[in-house]
């Protein structure tokens, strides 16, 4: 790969000092206090209708300013997912609008039916307890397959059969005929091949970000200003406008520093309601912050899913045909809907496909009375890869094959193009998965450990496991991908960079600064970026999701940077024509073709601002519209100890090896990998939102009962990389942010299988599930 000057440097985060010293200002830090406080009244049933709400006593509580109910708000549904919007010419791609500010139709336990506004939170809580609600209650349906059978009262009227969407991608009849088959099932059930069928399940995982969802709203200059902890400020402006029925330009959204999101904040939650309350109260400042408990059941965790899988394979270790059918439980509201399970079945199909003659990827997304769910890190792919790796692990174990060798014979390879993608945009332009696997094997001592752990007995056993992953970059061609960047030369020769893309803790501001510096020809330390986004002044960008920003927004940064560089050199030529045309910008100065310094960049910047005859404030504004995609790949190897009587799994050693293209900042990528691995270990062994299927109520909505791994629960996390130069990325880069969460969980499952011979298909593999499995196999 070409050696670059700023891209590839492990520079310190540009926001590091402010964050570690406490200078960074988050949403609640900026809220003017005292202000009005708002609290939501949630339903105490999981399905039904509000017949009446008596707020008489609540309004008498000292400090209460107003109480609004579901009968007071506009009857105007709006979409809440952080998806791109489309012009009228593509209106069919718009999200379903199925939320209201407050609603008398109860679809989930804890639905939003009223709001109290008071001078303080104590008054809010007292008033909430005095509101009397009369319901008409209906039966709760939590299982998607049961919901598809039909209910007397559809969850959403826009989908009377409770089916959000159903899709199916099949090998064409023409291609099947080449091998003598009429259907995919014929290929799967061909008696010349071995057959396997499994059923897998994955639970709802919560993002558990440190900063809760919070916002405050006020009016200024005739606009509603919403300051919010969000990944998607420009989308939030649009949704608030839609919810309130006002022009989008009458809304201003400001996003300060954010304390994590992982997908929760790729949805719009209470911000439209907060904006409406502010509007009703004459523009007074209103703060609305969710409790930790509310985050568990009234924001959007990972969708629960189940999969039925079949496959056929030969004695030569080659897959012959595969089928996956997935069911996704979106809960009472669509949020991100069918896109999530589509990612699941697509990743299943992409990861192992090389030798298949037939495949089927079918998926259903269903409304139920469960908690509404949505985006979470890696957006459905961990569930699909979990299922693919359960299948591959079982086949390798049952036949005594080496798991790495078997996977490498069938895994995705460089040059893959998805035949079902419009224009073939999803493609593996580069793929170093074999090199990643070799590096992981060496570090974990795969061959040695396999021999050492063979033929174990006793209650405590050891095992090693492996899992591969695949992940696309951004959302093109399935959805619009656009971003804009603005760069300006300051008076001192430094550069101001402005982005609509959001820093949410992942290091985006740092890599944008590096990319801008690379394009312009300056040092990263000379690029100033403001982490706040303000929709009134910030260039448009839909926000942080789908590992898109470095790839898509980075393309806009590079484009704007190169344009500013050309403007700087053109201005230098105007001021110093004797220096010739072939000027260069490097090392804080302008140089001519002979290597002579023409002027410093700082002196040129002063001339650009203050030259009486030729001043020209130099800036560039560039928009990128990206239609390509790039597939990132990698693997995880894990070494575990299993205490079967206790149902306890200890991860001793674990390594993630990834091909993310060129690394813009290796240190930040390593930090991303460590964070994702920790989240995946939690998903593997302990994290699951527990829902009572009879009521739809979340049973473990506290950090005491929802078990995330702490620093005491995690081993040393090892991350390695095999760089490639992807031709579609602005600097050869592809997805990084979400890839680390995908493969650790199935690698741990594979290690448990190696240690005990017991197969588990439900993630997380909690102690209860582990003990039940070991008892079932007679091991304890």
TrEMBL record:
<dbReference type="GO" id="GO:0004854">
    <property type="term" value="F:xanthine dehydrogenase activity"/>
</dbReference>
<feature type="domain" description="Aldehyde oxidase/xanthine dehydrogenase a/b hammerhead">
    <location>
        <begin position="21"/>
        <end position="139"/>
    </location>
</feature>
<dbReference type="InterPro" id="IPR008274">
    <property type="entry name" value="AldOxase/xan_DH_MoCoBD1"/>
</dbReference>
<dbReference type="InterPro" id="IPR050028">
    <property type="entry name" value="XdhA_XDHase"/>
</dbReference>
<dbReference type="InterPro" id="IPR000674">
    <property type="entry name" value="Ald_Oxase/Xan_DH_a/b"/>
</dbReference>
<keyword id="KW-0500">Molybdenum</keyword>
<dbReference type="Pfam" id="PF20256">
    <property type="entry name" value="MoCoBD_2"/>
</dbReference>
<dbReference type="InterPro" id="IPR046867">
    <property type="entry name" value="AldOxase/xan_DH_MoCoBD2"/>
</dbReference>
<keyword id="KW-0560">Oxidoreductase</keyword>
<dbReference type="Pfam" id="PF01315">
    <property type="entry name" value="Ald_Xan_dh_C"/>
</dbReference>
<dbReference type="InterPro" id="IPR036856">
    <property type="entry name" value="Ald_Oxase/Xan_DH_a/b_sf"/>
</dbReference>
<dbReference type="InterPro" id="IPR016208">
    <property type="entry name" value="Ald_Oxase/xanthine_DH-like"/>
</dbReference>
<protein>
    <submittedName>
        <fullName>Xanthine dehydrogenase molybdenum-binding subunit XdhA</fullName>
        <ecNumber>1.17.1.4</ecNumber>
    </submittedName>
</protein>
<dbReference type="InterPro" id="IPR037165">
    <property type="entry name" value="AldOxase/xan_DH_Mopterin-bd_sf"/>
</dbReference>
<dbReference type="Pfam" id="PF02738">
    <property type="entry name" value="MoCoBD_1"/>
</dbReference>
